[in-house]
Amino acid sequence: MKFQIIKNKLLGLIIPLILYVAWDFLTSREIIPPELLPAPKVIFDTWWDLQSSGELALNMKMSLLRVGFGFLLGAISGFLLGTAMGLWKPVELYLNPLFNFFRQIPVVAWIPFLILWLGIDEWFKIVFISFGAFIPMALKTLEGIKGVPASYLEVVRVFEYGWFRVLRTVIVPSALPSISTGLRLCLSEAWMLVIGAELVAAGEGIGNVMVIARRLFQTDVVLVGVIVIAITGFAMDKVLGLLETRFLGLHRSQNAQ
Amino acid sequence: MKKIINILLVMAVGMALFGITPGFAAEKVIRIGYPGGSGRPVSAGGWGYVQAKNLFEEEFKKDGYRIEYNYIKSQGPGCNEALANNSLDFSFHGDLPVLAGRSGGLKIKALTASRGGNAHLLVPTNSSIKTIKDLKGKRVGVGVGTWTHTLLARVLNDNGMTLKDIKVINITGSDFETAIATNDIDAGFGSRALVRRGVAKIIWTTVGKPVKYQSIFSLVVREAFLKQHPDIVKRFVKMYVKGLYLASLNKNETLKFNTRTGSALQDNIDDNAGQSIKYITAPRIDGQVTQLYKEVQLVAKNNGLIRKPFDVDKDFIDSSFLEAALKELNLENHWPNYDYNGNPIKK
Q: A203 contacts in B (CB within 8 Å)?
């Protein structure tokens, strides 16, 4: 059993490994010109440079702060809307069509207006990120609450539970998995969008490092940026995933008893 | 069997369409890039005469080459990218982008250079900013990676500041002009056209300052193109020098001619006050140019704009085409070499 899990994990590493070897081979022999794709060693050296000079940390801090604020703003407002629509039918009837209309708009399409309204400073980035984070959160919360099995509600009606007790013992526990999926989607969306926002306009941040590096023809720095973004996004999702299994796993097993 | 015949048929038709038709068979074109994005998509000075007199078109007609002029909105950095992906053969752009490109591994050679370009530090007309020192903490618009980026670093350094003391906003061309008019940025390097339109005033200018603040623009060629077509490069440089020669004959005429780009005559006169026409048309990569290249590279390095400095003298400059052209055109003594301060070196 354990062996099977390790084997499955290793299988996922085969293609990245092949790609890495091909990348190393093609770039070290300059079959692909280094100005178009720098070699892995160059990337590592550049990463170390940026890391040891503190440049990377400073810019990551800015990006993560933006993600944090945008994520909180988006997740909380998304949760509130989703909950309201899920619990009160009139709210759903009034707001769901508008929400469905709103969520068809790609967040990047808001950029011109957001810049017009908020300028190009921090508020623009935070609101932009929160727009993107808001949608999956509201959607998944609504879905979670709507998905509470009718039989459960039947049972609590028979037992004549108060509304708070219904919420605490039935609705929240059964909506939680969907809400936590919403959180993960929302965080990964926030991380994608911070890069987008910084590519448009920023003073600091990892996206901005890439814009400047591109204009200064530092292909290696751009690629380091891409890799750092990927690793950060991956790590953030993993952490949320771990938290989910830890708390929700517990919750689920309690629920089952 | 029928399937194979069908496939062969399709391939034959495809080859007939794409292989033999002259339009598709590696079209012969020479592609030249310039930083653009504001003003009209035509050039001033030597390049302007080359264009106006169709010098390249005439020269390369017999070989069947078409000439393509590209004005690239993302300016020098955009020229670098276009050179990297083989969309340009030649380009004429500023000192920082050329050096940054080369430092980033872009395979280009500098064939000629021109000096004496000016820039003015502008603020909106109603701004309270009066000196460079007032820029601290302000939003300064600059084309990141263009020659005014190092210029900005330089004037800040002169005043005990660095690029980190201001907010650098990456903006170029007409976007810059709009942003300064709407007060979205507090300052930035631009042309006198904005002062003429009443939206900006000048708080600092390269005019009348030591020549180290002025721009060096270089004609660069893709190394692969140079290796493949040394003959084309030779004739190309010769025609360009011809254009420079025409531009160098009469300063008043040339400044008037330069208004074709959309600049005002009086602005051209003000910008070039005190500079001889020989100076602003001189093409040699002489001691002055290489010294200024080195200085720009050092400023760029100190401000984190170039990460890997390289030896400017070695492996980057190729003056042989220019010298051959000057000789063929009997212009070897038409332009002097200049020293660091921009004074002609007497032979």
A: 167-168
Q: In the structure, what pLDDT confidence band is assigned to residue A248 with cuts at 50, 70 and 90?
A: confident
Nearest to B144 among A55, A215, A219 (CB): A215
Residue partners of B147: CB distance under 8 A and separation at least 6: B76, B94, B95, B96, B97, B117, B119, B215, B216, B217, B296
Q: Is the pLDDT of residue B22 over 50?
A: no
Query: Least CB-CB distance to A218: which of B74, B170, B307?
Result: B307
Query: 């591109």: which residue's tokens?
Result: A214
Burial B99-121 (b: 16+ CB within 10 A, else e): bbbbbbbbbbbbbbbbbbbbbbb
Domain carrying residue A247: 60-256
> Packing angle between helix A206-215 and helix A172-200, nearest 10 degrees?
30
Helix (H) or strand (E) holding A133: helix A122-146
- How far A120 CA lies from chain B's nearest CA (Å)? 9
- Structurally, chain B folds into a number of domains equal to 2
Chain B environment of A35 (Cβ under 8 Å): 84, 104-107
β-strand B215-222 against B108-117: which pairing, if any?
A: antiparallel
Q: Are residues B241 and B315 in the same domain?
A: yes
Residue B17 lies in a domain: no
User: Are B216 and B296 in contact, with CB atoms under 8 Å apart?
Assistant: yes
d(CA B2, CA B6): 6
d(CA B138, CA B130): 13
Please report, for the domain that includes residue B164, its CATH number.
Answer: 3.40.190.10
The string of pLDDT tens digits covering residues B55-86 is 999 999 999 999 999 999 999 999 999 999 99
Task: Give me A224's structure tokens.
Answer: 């380091």
d(CA B343, CA B274): 12
Given an 8 Å threshold on Cβ–Cβ distance, is B101 in contact with A46? no
Instruction: Tell me if ipTM is over 0.90.
Output: no
Which of B85, B184, B305 has the CB atom closest to A216's CB atom? B305
Domain final residue, candidates B205, B240, B268: B205
Contact A221 B105 (CB under 8 A): no
- Claim to verify: residue B132 and residue B251 sit in the same structural domain: no
Nearest beta carbon to residue B144 from set A120, A212, A220? A212
How open is the CA angle B270-B272-B277, to the nearest 5 degrees? 145
* 3-class secondary structure, B166: coil
CB B57 within 8 A of CB B29: no
Provide the Cα torsion B10, B13, B18, B19; round to 10°. 110
Tell me: do B256 and B285 sit in the same domain.
yes
Does residue A13 fall inside a structural domain? no
Total domains in chain A come to 1
**Spatial separation of the C-alpha atoms in residues B279 and A196, rounded to whole Å:** 45
- Lowest mean pLDDT, pick from A89-103, B23-37, B100-114: B23-37
| pLDDT the model gives residue B213 | 95
Q: How far apart are CA B109 and CA B98, in angstroms?
A: 9
Q: Structural domain of residue B48, as residue ranges?
A: 29-118+215-328
Does one domain contain both B243 and B96? yes
C-alpha torsion angle, residues B198, B204, B208, B211 (rounded to 10): -120
Contact A33 B170 (CB under 8 A): no
CB B213 within 8 A of CB B206: yes
B229 — contact with chain A (CB < 8 Å)? Answer: no
